[in-house]
Specification:
Rossmann fold, 3 domains, 4-stranded antiparallel sheet, Immunoglobulin-like, 14-stranded mixed sheet, His_Pase_clade-2, 20% strand, His_PPase_superfam, single chain
Length: 658
């Protein structure tokens, strides 16, 4: 069939009139016809037609590699017509590089050379261009915290009759082990994640408008950002991009720090009390324990709990079991809220997973295979669920969610919105930005992801983990996209996580190796995402001036974004080179407009509200070994708008609680 002749119903093909195919279909795997695709991604086209088959693409996409099954007697898997057609295959990968506003897939098939050609109903997808992406990462694998009421995560403890592995087994120094820094596998995982993001986005990573921000009070988050940069950026720009990493602290970045701290407490906005925590599960702690009795008892058997002395401490008989321990509410233990069976079993389950994913041989004393370990880990995940209930999430992440919404709002409006104050993201002298997506990568903790999950009321699941797990190295991503057809803004939310086996094997996450798991939990118009997020935020828990921005968005006091224009829908869809620079500055809160707008308000950010990092019992002891000297050097660029720095220093000197 000549390449110039399209597959069209009621035209003469092979000496007969072609007809519509009402029995078989051509489609894209995982996409509904009439749906969308992202420019540059790889799709899979498939058909269930019998006989001799030809698949055809229009709109700029091309076939790259076909596969066949035994039903097809003639199969070569080779594309023709400059990649727009492929013969006698059941499926083929499709490149969307160079695709236009829409791509369309059809098939034609015939059972003989003299019969009619049956042509399928067209399957059309509309291109979405990713304009901005926010990736919120949990750090890589770390050494464990000490067990409950203990001071060391190595050796013997009151809960276990067998010693936990020493620092040497983790290939860590005792100092790094006790400070809960990244394990060697944790370093590698974050490099692999950076490489995966770079490969997914395509093009030259050095030309990306990317800013990396880490919790400046956590050295492992800074390590994670550095390793991510090492994987994401090539040699020619990795040093400069690593130097640009921002270590956000309450004193250096007062509006940004609560986004990456895992327990930023804003004055006047406290976490839940016992009744509010119990309301998450109906209040019956015994029932909650019974629901997880099997994995709790399995952990108890592994560790040999409980000793006669532990039983005596709780006024129990000498042969008590782990599930029999009483559960006591501890309001300051925001990561679990209850001492007792859940806390102890959850701790050891997580410690075993950290051993396994860090490559320890053996892990869990060699008595638990990976598939069973995933089941035991449910206890830890349930404990995390307790710590990330609605009230906790509103108290500790309302500011973070407001910040992310405001960041996206600035891109949609192509104008500054008060309350977003990222540091400088493009060093002076660097070439002007090209029309590439804006990338904000945040390096934080598991609770940062879980709080946002609860506020947005979304769920996910990836390989080897239970529902809504936030494993090491996982990321919660919000991608702001725009339709090439009508200019509609959409937000796509995904959770990306390497499986336990991938983390343990330490293999890359790009071809020819398997990619990490990816769950799409959100795909809605931007206006719907914004409304959902704003309704979930507790404005009392948001610092000014961001708090006023939230109120203005809810009340409609901010003027609506301008409608799509022909210019916006032109080259690069939505962002010419100049517009990208402005939008990039607004996403990151810099540029002359944003700076001028924020100059007068950042100085008052702490006059009405203050933020500090709460204590964490044993977690605090692990972090307390770090002082400011850990973060003052190492090439981290903590540069901010000069007015913001002056305001923060002035506020601190006046005795404000930071």
């Amino acid at each position: 069939m000549n390449c110039s002749q399209p597959l069209t119903v009621n035209t003469t093909i092979m000496f007969a009139k072609s007809v519509s195919d009402f029995q078989s279909t051509a489609s894209f795997v995982g996409r509904a016809c009439g749906g969308t695709f992202t420019a540059g991604e790889t799709l899979v086209a498939t058909t269930n037609a019998p006989g001799q088959i030809l698949m055809e693409l229009t709109g700029g996409a091309t076939f790259t590699r076909g596969t066949c099954n035994s039903r097809l007697s003639r199969c070569n898997g080779l594309s023709t017509c400059n990649g727009t057609r492929i013969n006698n295959v059941n499926s083929s990968t499709v490149s969307t590089t160079g695709a236009g506003a829409t791509i369309t897939l059809k098939h034609g098939w015939a059972s003989s050379s003299t019969g009619p050609v049956f042509i399928s109903t067209p399957c059309t997808l509309t291109r979405l261009t990713t304009v901005a992406a926010i990736h919120l990462y949990r750090h890589g694998q770390r050494s464990p915290y000490p067990p409950p009421h203990e001071s060391s995560a190595a050796g013997y403890n009151q809960w276990s009759t067998r010693p936990l592995p020493p620092a040497a087994d983790w290939n860590m120094t005792p100092t790094d082990f006790n400070r809960n820094l990244l394990t060697p596998n944790g370093h590698a995982l974050m490099r692999h994640m950076g490489e995966f993001i770079a490969r997914s986005m395509g093009g030259d990573p050095c030309s990306l408008h990317a800013l990396l921000v880490a919790d400046g009070l956590s050295q492992r988050d800074l390590q994670s950002a550095q390793e991510f940069a090492a994987g994401m950026f090539p040699t020619e720009c990795v040093a400069a991009r690593t130097a640009d990493i921002v270590a956000a602290t309450p004193s250096s970045s007062p509006l940004l720090a609560p986004v990456v701290l895992d327990h930023a407490v804003i004055e006047g906005c406290s976490g839940p009390d016992e009744d509010e925590v119990r309301a998450n599960f109906g209040g019956d702690v015994a029932a909650l324990t019974n629901a997880l009795r099997q994995p709790i008892e399995r952990v108890g058997t592994l560790i040999g709990c409980c000793s006669a002395s532990v039983c005596a401490q709780h006024a129990l008989g000498p042969n008590c079991t782990l599930s029999e321990l009483p559960a006591t509410f501890q309001r300051t233990h925001y990561w679990e809220y209850f001492d007792g069976p859940l806390a102890v079993a959850g701790y050891f389950a997580e410690a075993f997973v950290l051993q396994a994913t860090s490559g320890l041989e053996p892990f869990a004393w060699g008595e638990v295979p990976l598939d069973e370990l995933a089941q035991l880990y449910r206890v830890h995940e349930r404990m995390m669920w307790l710590g990330s209930g609605r009230n906790s999430s509103r108290a500790y992440a309302s500011h973070a969610l407001a910040y992310l919404v405001a960041s996206l709002e600035q891109v949609v409006r192509d104008a500054p919105v008060p309350g977003v104050a990222h540091p400088s993201w493009r060093p002076s002298g660097r070439a002007p930005p090209s029309p590439r997506p804006l990338v904000l990568a945040l390096f934080a903790h598991d609770f940062n992801l879980l709080y946002l999950r609860r506020l947005l009321d979304v769920h996910w699941v990836t390989e080897s983990f239970d529902l809504d797990a936030a494993t090491t190295g996982s990321s919660l991503s919000l991608e702001l996209t725009r339709s090439a057809l009508d200019g509609e803004w959409r937000v796509v939310g995904t959770l990306t996580a390497a499986s336990m086996a991938q983390q343990r094997s330490n293999l890359p996450l790009v071809h020819p190796h398997a990619p990490p798991g990816r769950a799409t939990f959100l795909d809605v118009p931007y206006t719907e995402f914004r409304a959902r997020a704003l309704q979930a935020i507790d404005q009392r828990c948001v610092l000014e001036p961001l708090r006023s921005t939230v109120a203005a968005l809810l009340s409609g006091d901010l003027s609506p974004p301008p409608p799509p224009s022909d210019q916006v829908l032109g080259t690069a869809l939505g962002l010419s080179t100049g517009a990208a620079a402005v939008a990039g500055a607004c996403l990151l809160g810099v540029g002359c407009l944003c700076g001028a707008l924020l100059l007068g308000v950042l100085g008052n950010a702490f006059s009405s509200r203050k933020v500090h990092q709460s204590s964490k019992s044993s977690k605090t002891r692990a972090e307390a070994a770090m002082d400011d000297s850990d973060f003052g050097g190492g090439g981290f660029n903590m540069e901010m708008n000069e007015a913001a720095i002056a305001a923060a220093k002035s506020s601190h000197k006046k005795g404000d609680a930071i």
